[in-house]
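ok so for the tutorial part 2 we go from a plain amino acid sequence to predicted structure tokens. step 1 is just haveing the sequence, like this:
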Amino acid sequence: MGDSLRSSDDPPGASSIAAILDPSSPPVVRSPISRVFPDVGPPLLEAIREGRHRKLALQVPAGLVRNAHELASEIREATGRPVVMVSRACFGACDAPAADKIAGADALVVLGHSPIPNVAYPLPTYFVEMRSTGGDPASLAATVAGGGLPHRLGVVASVQHLDLVEPLTKALAARGIELRTGAGDHRLAHAAQALGCNYTSAQSLGAWAEAFLFLGTGRFHPLGLALAVDRPVWALDPLRNELEPPVDRAGLIRGRLLMVARALDARRFGILVSTFEGQNRSGMAASLAERARRRGREAEILVAGRLDPRDLEGRQFDAYVNTACPRIALDDAASYPRPMLTPPEFLMALGELPMEPYRFDTYH
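step 2 — the prediction. this is what the tokens look like for a chain of 364 residues:
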């Protein structure tokens, strides 16, 4: 994933910390096939037929598993190819299944996600973004205007609602509110796109935006966005036309700093690495382990595909550092037997980063 490693004689300091936490974004890579479709329709099915694959594997997020068998049946009938369903739900385009999970399939269909441009997918992969047409821009603009938000707003959206960004921008402009899209790094396939590990499109607007608007459903992305930017964050559900109150960023950060405080006296750290192609930061893990040892602490690297709290039971570690999906530490910390830190929080615990300003763990 392009992590920068320090040399063994590089003394701890700001430059080496930046090399670990802010590596340059790798360029877009060329996968065997990485095609994107807005929905399940003739273009997708025709592209699969043209691919002449022997067998297809279908991977869907947790929210769509109920109807996954219908899509598998449709693909099988339309293409004449066998289809197997990956039983493990996916949380993003970063956790494509390993070869032993797809029963010899030579192509993958991923529902509900966009490709990550700087991740090399080992198989031909068809991404079906499931774009939603729900939400009336004029009504949504009225809701935002009535919510007392500032007049300079950065926008971030889940991939399903990206098509609403342009019409909502126009509808808000008519009400004197400017909605602006930032420029993200190579990990984002679309402008304004939200990933749980990357809000660089929003961060690029930090000097201009008075606040941010998340367009989508659920609390997963608004909470991550609130940790990544130092501006108020509102969430607008386009399907219900409901505007949520601003995220309590200060409260979120207090909770994370309490987690850091619990690890200040830790002597032995377990540093977690995921083998998923889009989450593997083994270079970062090695650098963090070295920094811990230089501080007189012990550190060992633990490798897994999907991280499971049960796999850590009985281990003699005082705290853990998660280099896989940042949201594991932020959302699932209560499931783990010891404090679970992000890499920036780990450096806070070592005394190498200040507690303020809080740093979000961004994947590049």
